[in-house]
Predict the 3D structure of the following.
Amino acid sequence: MRVMPNLFEGKIKESSIFLNRDIMLPSYTPERLPFREKQIEEMVSVLSAAVDDHKPDNLFLYGKPGTGKTSCTRHVLNQLDEFVRAKGLAVKIVYMNCRHYNSKYKVLSRIVQGLYPDRDFIGYSGTFIYENLLKYCKENACRLIIGLDEIDKTKDLDELIYALTRANDELQNSSISILGISNQLMFKDRLDPRTKSSLCERELVFPPYNAEELRAILKDRVKMAFKPDVVEESAINLAAAIAAQESGDARTAVMLMLRAAEIAEQGNHSKVTDKEVKKAKERVEEEIVMDMICSLPEQQQLVLYAIARLTTDKKGIKKLSNEECVLCSGEVYDEYRKIAEKVKASSVSIRWFQEYINELEMYGLLLTTNSGKGFRGHTRLIKLGFDGEKIRSILEKHLLA
DNA sequence: CCTCCACAGGAAGCGCAGGAGT
DNA sequence: ACTCCTGCGCTTCCTGTGGAGG
């Protein structure tokens, strides 16, 4: 009997372009953080109080996504941890993301769990957990530093901050400091004024990167992740320029380059050039649009589908004087009703249909203008924002499934 | 000029779900 | 466990608007 080859045989492929693909993934924490020297220095100067056996001020970091907040924090906290371990200092560090630990109870449990790794705190009351937090600080006379990433995701943040800052009143040779990180500057205004002033004893802004900085960051990563001379200089420049224009976000730039590299690999090209970056950008944009369409409520999908059908079937299309092809909202509503009936879905009133049109326009999926001369009465002229065939085919799969 | 058309969009209110308060 | 409240999605009703057509 012939032995079948294992299914995974031949799946280990030597990449022709990557040295280490992981370096291009969002989870990678870079060791060097260029253009953030000032922020790192500031963080170190605040936290160094702990090394000196004083309470560090609470520190609040904010800036848009991909501006290096998390990477810098991780880096600084790692360094601090390494340092205090080597010197045998009583400094404890707990870091977590509040997207997962999104309530006072969950955050406190996570902290205490980190302090007592051998014990299990599942199921105990909030008070018991809080008591244990205080007990640990008192017994170990330690400086506790709590890093809370995406702190704005915590539901009862006022109470959490209050509990943590009030703990300091009961502690003498020990303390608790908070290092909060947020993407949203505005969220501070939703807080209780007392919470705000205690959380934001010290603040640090992470501004977006400009194109020049993104270029340097990307170049650095590319050097580590790819084989030499695989990525062309101009491709790096283009990816940096696109990311700078869109968001000033290093993550976008790196993701774009990763996509471009994957496109090159699929096409068996040994080089990543402008062409791949451009293609990657298009593909990313298309994916965003398609994801958006798929996550729309069913009724809005039906409305969009009606518009896509009329557009691709060239039914009911009016040509404007400037050659633009548009649809009138009344006809779209009729078509929508017909389609809804066909797929046995309910349909909404014309008033609500208008709101759907507004919403779809807000998402950029539609473009509308008010009718002027040449149209009876007062109607809205509707046009698709993206390719009709693509929208139609994706919605057909989605709605008829 | 008046009336009609074809719609936009405001206001009020309804039914329901989920959360807060007790 | 219970009620009460609130927000959401939606319908119904209404008023406004501006060109077309007689």
Summary: DSSP finds 14 helices and nine strands in chain A. The first strand of chain A starts at residue 59 and ends at 62.
